[in-house]
Design brief:
Blueprint: E1 10-12, E2 17-21, E3 24-27, E4 30-33, E5 35-39, E6 42-46, H1 60-64, E7 71-75, H2 85-93, E8 97-101, H3 103-115, E9 120-124
Parallel strand pairs: 7-8, 7-9
Antiparallel strand pairs: 1-6, 2-3, 3-4, 5-6, 5-9
Length: about 130
């Protein structure tokens, strides 16, 4: 992240996504190159670059905030990718719904639901 985020790739607070593409995102008057997690606690850098690398471990931060999340939007990049059943079941057991879609659609949907104060989070893979 650039323009002054905290160490470790974290910007506290809830922010809308202003733009995406060119390998990153703009939000909260900042930009970040790479994938991100939009959580109730703030925006986190996310080391996932491909949908097949999404695992329970890569979503540990989401699971840690499960009390504040009812729906996780997963932006799988330029293409829609079906996420494996064990991952879906783990999120369901934590009380978190899952909807996977292209990153652009996930970013737009996140903005709408967050503006409605819904308990939503997003895991977004950066697109070129």
């Amino acid at each position: 992240m650039s323009a002054g985020p905290r160490p470790g790739g974290f910007l506290p607070g809830r922010h809308g996504i202003d733009a995406y593409g060119n390998g990153g995102f703009r939000f909260g008057d900042m930009s970040h190159r790479g994938s991100i997690l939009m959580l109730p606690s703030g925006v986190h850098a996310w080391a996932v670059e491909r949908a097949d690398a999404i695992t329970t471990a890569s979503l540990a931060a989401v699971l840690a905030e499960r009390e504040a999340i009812e729906l996780l939007l997963v932006g799988t990049g330029a293409d829609i990718v079906f996420l494996p059943d064990p991952l879906r079941q783990r999120l369901k057991a934590a009380g978190i719904g899952l909807d996977a879609m292209q990153t652009g659609a996930a970013a737009r949907t996140y903005n709408i639901l967050a503006a409605e104060n819904r308990k939503v989070a997003a895991a977004l893979i950066a697109v070129p």
